[in-house]
Amino acid sequence: MTITVRPGSTVMFTGDSITDCQRLESEDGLGFGYPLRVAGEWGLRHPDRPVTWLNTANGGDKVMDLEARWQTDVLDARPDVVSILVGVNDMGWHTLDPKGYVIPVEEFEAGYDRLLAPLAEAGTKLILIEPFLLPIHGVVEAGAGVALIGEEERKEWRADLDPKIQVVRTLARTYGAHLLAADGMFAGLTATTGPEYWAADGVHPTPAGHAALAAAWLRLVA
């Protein structure tokens, strides 16, 4: 069952850099990634149903960072639909920040639950996008060049991420949210193209990766 987006609705995207995509530098505030593609395609398909599109994602955010700004950046806007993609920084924080630590899955789950509870109470429609990690090859820079991520680091990250993906899936069921199974989607897409085609560093989508996310997102709404 899809979410019906009615004329005059406010739809908000939030999360980390995958959603941020330099939104503050763009005239429409949506950035260059999948939120812009969703808004554009929706406008093409439904000129009779205008929507206010918002993007409040911040690069580098973890669940705890979202929680710190949740009231002012999300709840106060009273959106009708909220789409959340967060978790990759909860996975790699201990690698990328000297002050970071391995965030336990229990901490991740409790914080994410606190994000969702007030939205559910307000009757907000929810779309949860799984965090994802593509199995690219070689060594890449991460965290604005503060760390080098190779095969061993990606194995460690994957072991940390998998239970957090399960948390997102569980919370989607608990709150009746629509789940965009992005990790599984990209795993399927890489079978024919290789992972770098969709995310050169394994985390941040290429234009094709953003297009795939947008197409999957739009299948959840009507």
UniProtKB/TrEMBL annotation:
Family annotation (InterPro entries): Ester_Hydrolysis_Enzymes, SGNH_hydro, SGNH_hydro_sf
Domain called SGNH hydrolase-type esterase: residue spans: 14-212
Xref: SUPFAM superfamilies: SGNH hydrolase
PANTHER family associated with the record: SGNH HYDROLASE-TYPE ESTERASE DOMAIN-CONTAINING PROTEIN, THIOESTERASE 1/PROTEASE 1/LYSOPHOSPHOLIPASE L1
Protein name: GDSL family lipase
